[in-house]
Design a protein that fits this description.
CATH superfamily of the largest domain: SPOUT methyltransferase, trefoil knot domain
Radius of gyration: 19 Å
Order of helices and strands: EHHEHEEHEHEHHHH
Distance between the termini: 59 Å
CATH architecture of the largest domain: 3-Layer(aba) Sandwich
Number of helices: 9
Strand content: 5-15%
Largest sheet: 4 strands, parallel
Strand order of the largest sheet: 4-6-3-5
Length: about 220
């Protein structure tokens, strides 16, 4: 389908002879694959991260179908932002902590009595949708001229800063956090901050910290 950047997170065996045999000539993708010790390190430079899931979550995430996700991914990539599609374990999928790193969730419509797809099939469906939605030769998707994406790593720093401020304001009890930070992550992941918005919010948080410090 034309995608070539494969990132593996804590693979049980890699490189693997079985994988090479099944690659059917696409050995270059395996040879150039990067291996990471955590999902965060795999997606830290990405501006948009899609997580795939076949089951409902207690806290809902912005949900996309494959075609919708592909269009959004192609447009984001055109604005100079790396995009990741994250696939979980075939047996248990992605954890809530891993979904915290995702901006959107993708569910592939299936027969409701058999909603779990083979991992390879899920990957192929999404890669096909991306391929199908690539712009025609000589054209570019429309993107905002002033839009500059914010990476996953930068958003992680923002969430740390936000949590620190909420604790100082006595709004968040670190001993009984409940789901506050997860809900706030969902809010800002859904918003998809650009560079200017990100800098404004970091400035607001810094001002809150300065005010609290001066009040002491």
């Amino acid at each position: 389908m034309g995608l070539a950047s494969l990132c593996l997170v804590r693979p049980k065996v890699f490189p693997a002879a079985d994988a090479t045999a099944r690659a059917a000539g696409a050995d270059d993708i395996l040879e150039n694959a990067s291996v990471h010790d955590s999902l965060f390190h795999a997606v830290r430079d990405c501006a948009l991260v899609f997580g795939t899931t076949a089951r409902e979550r207690s806290i809902s995430w912005p949900l996309r179908q494959p075609g919708e996700a592909a269009v959004e991914a192609v447009n984001c990539a055109a604005a100079a932002g790396d995009v990741a599609f994250v696939f979980g374990r075939e047996s248990s999928g992605l954890t809530n902590e891993e979904l915290d790193l995702c901006n959107r969730m993708i569910t592939i419509p299936c027969n409701p009595v058999f909603s779990s797809l083979n991992l390879a099939a899920a990957v192929q469906i999404l890669c096909y949708e991306v391929r199908r939605n690539l712009p025609a030769a000589g054209t570019q998707p429309e993107t905002g001229k002033d839009y500059e994406p914010v990476t996953t790593e930068e958003m992680s720093l923002f969430y740390e800063h936000l949590e620190r401020c909420l604790v100082k304001l006595d709004y968040l009890d670190p001993d009984k956090p409940r789901r506050l930070m997860r809900r706030l992550r969902r809010l800002f992941n859904r918003a998809g901050l650009d560079r200017n918005e990100y800098n404004i919010l970091r400035g607001v948080l810094a001002a809150i910290e300065d005010t609290r410090q001066n009040d002491k």
